[in-house]
Specification:
With 780 residues, this protein is α+β, with helices and mostly antiparallel strands. The chain contains 20 helices and 39 strands. The chain has five domains: 278 residues, 3-Layer(aba) Sandwich (Rossmann fold); 109 residues, Beta Barrel (Elongation Factor Tu (Ef-tu), domain 3), CATH 2.40.30; 64 residues, Elongation Factor G (Translational Gtpase), domain 3 (Alpha-Beta Plaits), CATH 3.30.70; 116 residues, Ribosomal Protein S5, domain 2 (2-Layer Sandwich), CATH 3.30.230.10; 107 residues, Alpha-Beta Plaits (2-Layer Sandwich), CATH 3.30.70. Helices cover 31% and strands 29% of the residues. Helix 9 packs across helix 10, helix 13 packs across helix 14 and helix 15 crosses helix 16. It starts with 8 loop residues before the first helix and ends with a helix.
């Protein structure tokens, strides 16, 4: 019998095969025949194994056909109207309803009664739909800067976004804010120039504004067929096809050849598109410079690559209200925005000192999910989750990494505005909601095999406060319940207690923000509340270093109190994000290390109320250099009190000053009123930083102290000589009439928007006035 070498796995397989044949077969083949037969089977099994390895995972197609997008814009640019059309064309709703609920129904995504009455979006709303076999999760966000946290947390968890721009208003102040948020979270985006049917529509002006104001590397991928009342359809510059929209709701998209009278502008704009994309895409640049004919497929791929790399923003056009261009925008979402595994997401590994870890974004990994939004639903707390890795199933046990608590998933749902659809499981890339999970916004959940946390979102500080109290003492329980719920849902809404008056103080991003919550307390909890005068959230800080050396000594018969702290306080530059720093530079054990946290706590407590006007002290560094303790009388309380008194002792020597919130004000007024309005801004101690012309209008940009903007709505109305104001439904509100700053107010001949910029020191005369007012109020 032939002998087989037994060194390799192949040889061992063939030898085993031949041995088995000789034992089982009545007429075994010759060794040579067995070798050939065994080799055939070995190749066959190897090919099967390789095919199994090469087979794509089950989730690959599912994730590639998924898009998570947000729709964001300035006020009244048509975000919710656009979302309504998207839901209609994708078959999620069967009737189109308008914003403000003129037909008694209202837009699907504005599920709150207040939203339908006022015609504004207050809360971001999530939904999902299907287009050309792709699943799209959509979050519609508010446009008012007061509700900026809703935009912030939506963009934190989305893979792509649509920036909606008005073809008449162009790039406005909140457009810039939203675009800045998109950059912060590195979200690829499309721009959609809406309202081409309106009088004065000029998409090319808006395109130029995106380049100059937003610093977008952008170009149009469509050319409109007509404008204003003559707007009929669009020409796609990539496919070189014309599209018209027929039917009662524009549901029939008719494809045609490019109109002959538009051939020149289409050729010009397509060349411009290719040039702009070539600047950021090497592959297309090579073809362009070689004078090769660029196919539609090659151009589409180049636009996708540049958009995903955030080097290019494709600009789409249309009119959501007139049902034109929405289907092509949906095609653009599929073609140019990323699927979840094309976006890089990172977590912090808590078991390795917050080491940055790249997430695979696949269902094969361990579960990692972020709670980005909370809502009080009919069945308890509703927690919105974005799943970054792994799979979540109904009945699974998750661990909240921030609290360490184990939580069972009792119910898993997919949201459609305020409606829910129960599901059994969801995988990486999806946005879902769970019931009965007690957590805070920004908590991370895993299956326990890893200790990852996702980076938190940026939460701006409140700029305005308001004293509120229930009219009836019997409704105090419901009042507290409402405030606790709203505070948990909205990180920018804060609740505190005025130590002098005992009143409840609510703080937020602006007057509309606070007014909405007061109205919601009345409607949802049936509690009428009296509202005090709005007040500005000042801050205090120090301007120079000051030393402290304080001994707290108290004897009271039994164990006394003894604690001495020495060191200095110094200012932190205003541009730094750190508000409070505590450094322990003590060498040795003059103060036992167990008392150091109590000292830090004492300084923090003292910094909550400065001596000038009683507002929090920020941008300070406290350095502890020496001290003394007593073997019997020293305690945490003694050192905490020593720290509080030491801070008060040295505070005056550090030359404290008051910081006030300064707002970015943008006005659009007829040029004839420019002198009057500019003079009024100067009177309010504002600084004009920009003055542009837009047709017959002047656009003035200024930095103005918030404290000087009370009553500005009325003043602007008077200056622009217009009697009527078209507002958003708060005519009788004290807040509306006293400070109408943080939302756009159409004044007939002018409008203004205002958003928080930064806290800056006040002038000496203003500081004296504020200090005297505070002292008079305290004495009273």
């Amino acid at each position: 019998m032939a002998r087989f070498p037994r060194g390799s796995s192949t040889s061992r397989f063939l030898f085993s095969y031949y041995t088995a044949l000789t034992k089982t077969s009545p007429s075994p083949p010759s060794p040579t025949a067995a070798l050939l037969q065994g080799s055939f089977y070995l190749r066959h099994f190897s090919n099967l194994a390789r095919a199994k390895e090469d087979k794509e995972p089950w989730w690959k197609e599912s994730i590639e056909r998924l898009r998570n997008i947000g729709i964001s814009a300035h006020i009244d640019s048509g975000k919710t109207t656009l979302t309504e059309r998207v839901l209609y064309y994708t078959g999620r709703i069967h009737e189109i309803h308008e914003v403000r609920g003129r037909d008694g129904v209202g837009a699907k995504m504005d599920s709150m009664d207040l939203e339908r009455e006022k015609g504004i979006t207050i809360q971001s709303a999530a939904t999902y739909c299907t287009w050309n076999d792709y699943k799209i999760n959509i979050i519609d966000t508010p446009g008012h800067v007061d509700f900026t946290i809703e935009v912030e947390r939506a963009l934190r968890v989305l893979d792509g976004a649509i920036l909606v721009l008005c073809s008449v208003g162009g790039v406005q102040s909140q457009s810039i804010t939203v675009d800045r948020q998109m950059r912060r979270y590195e979200v690829p985006r499309l721009a959609f120039i809406n309202k081409l049917d309106r009088m004065g529509a000029d998409p090319w002006k808006v395109l130029n504004q995106t380049r100059s104001k937003l610093r977008h590397h952008s170009a149009a991928v469509q050319v409109p067929i007509g404008l204003e009342e003559h707007f009929e359809g669009l020409v796609d510059l990539v496919q070189l096809k014309a599209y018209n929209f027929h039917g009662s709701s524009g549901e029939k998209v008719v494809t045609a050849e490019v109109p002959s009278d538009m051939a020149a502008i289409v050729a010009e704009k397509r060349r411009e598109l290719i040039e702009v994309v070539s600047e950021v895409d090497d592959k297309l640049a090579d073809a362009f410079l070689s004078d090769e004919s660029i196919s539609s497929a090659a151009l589409e791929e180049a636009i996708r690559r540049a958009t995903l790399a955030q080097k290019f923003v494709p600009v789409f056009m249309g009119s959501a209200f007139k049902n034109k261009g929405v289907q092509l925008l949906l095609d653009g979402v599929l073609s140019y925005l990323p699927c979840p595994n094309e976006v890089s997401n990172y977590a912090l590994d808590q078991s390795k000192n917050e080491e940055k870890v790249a997430l695979s974004g696949t269902p094969d990994g361990p579960l990692v999910a972020l709670a980005f939004k909370l809502e009080e639903g009919r069945f308890g707390q509703l927690t919105y989750l974005r799943i970054y890795e792994g799979v979540i199933r109904k009945g699974d046990v998750m661990i909240n990494i921030n609290t360490g608590k184990k939580i069972k998933v009792p119910r898993l749902v997919r949201m459609h505005s305020n409606e829910m659809e129960d599901i059994q499981e969801a995988h990486a890339g999806e946005i879902v909601a769970v019931f009965g999970v007690d957590c805070a916004s920004g908590d991370t959940f895993t299956n326990g095999s890893v200790r990852y946390t996702m980076t938190s979102m940026n939460v701006p500080e409140p700029v305005m406060s308001l004293a509120v109290q229930p009219v009836s003492k019997d409704s105090g329980g419901q009042f507290s319940k409402a405030l606790n719920r709203f505070q948990k849902e909205d990180p920018t809404f804060r609740v505190g207690l005025d130590p002098e008056s005992g009143q409840t103080i609510i703080s937020g991003m602006g007057e509309l923000h606070l007014d909405i919550y007061v109205e919601r307390i009345r409607r949802e909890y049936k509690v009428d509340a009296t509202v005090g005068k709005p007040r500005v959230n000042f801050r205090e800080t120090i301007t120079q270093r000051a030393d402290f050396d304080y001994l707290h000594k108290k004897q009271s018969g039994g164990q006394g109190q003894y604690g001495r702290v020495c060191g200095y306080i110094e200012p932190i530059p205003l541009e730094e994000s750190t508000k409070f720093e505590f450094d322990n530079l003590i060498v040795g054990q003059v103060i036992p290390s167990s008392f150091i946290p109590a000292i830090e706590k004492g300084f923090k407590e003292a910094a909550n109320s400065g001596s000038l006007i009683g507002h929090p002290v920020e941008n300070i560094r406290i350095v502890l250099t020496d001290g003394a303790s007593h073997a019997v009388d020293s305690s945490e309380l003694a050192f905490k009190m020593a720290a509080i008194y030491a801070f008060r002792q040295c505070y005056a020597a550090a030359k404290p000053t008051i910081l006030e919130p300064v707002m970015l004000l943008e006005l659009k007024i007829p040029t004839e009123f420019q002198g009057t309005v500019s003079g009024d801004i100067n009177k309010r101690k504002g600084v004009i930083v920009g003055n542009d012309q837009d047709g017959d209008d002047s656009i003035i940009t200024a930095h103005v102290p918030l404290n000087n903007m009370f009553g500005y709505s009325t003043a602007l109305r008077s200056m622009t000589q217009v009697r009527h104001v078209a507002n958003v439904g708060f005519e009788n509100s004290f807040l509306y009439n006293s400070l109408h700053g943080v939302l756009s107010v159409l004044q007939g001949k002018g409008e203004f928007t205002m958003e928080y910029k930064e806290h800056l020191p006040v002038s000496q005369d203003v500081q004296m006035q504020l200090v005297n007012t505070y002292k008079a109020g305290t004495a009273a």
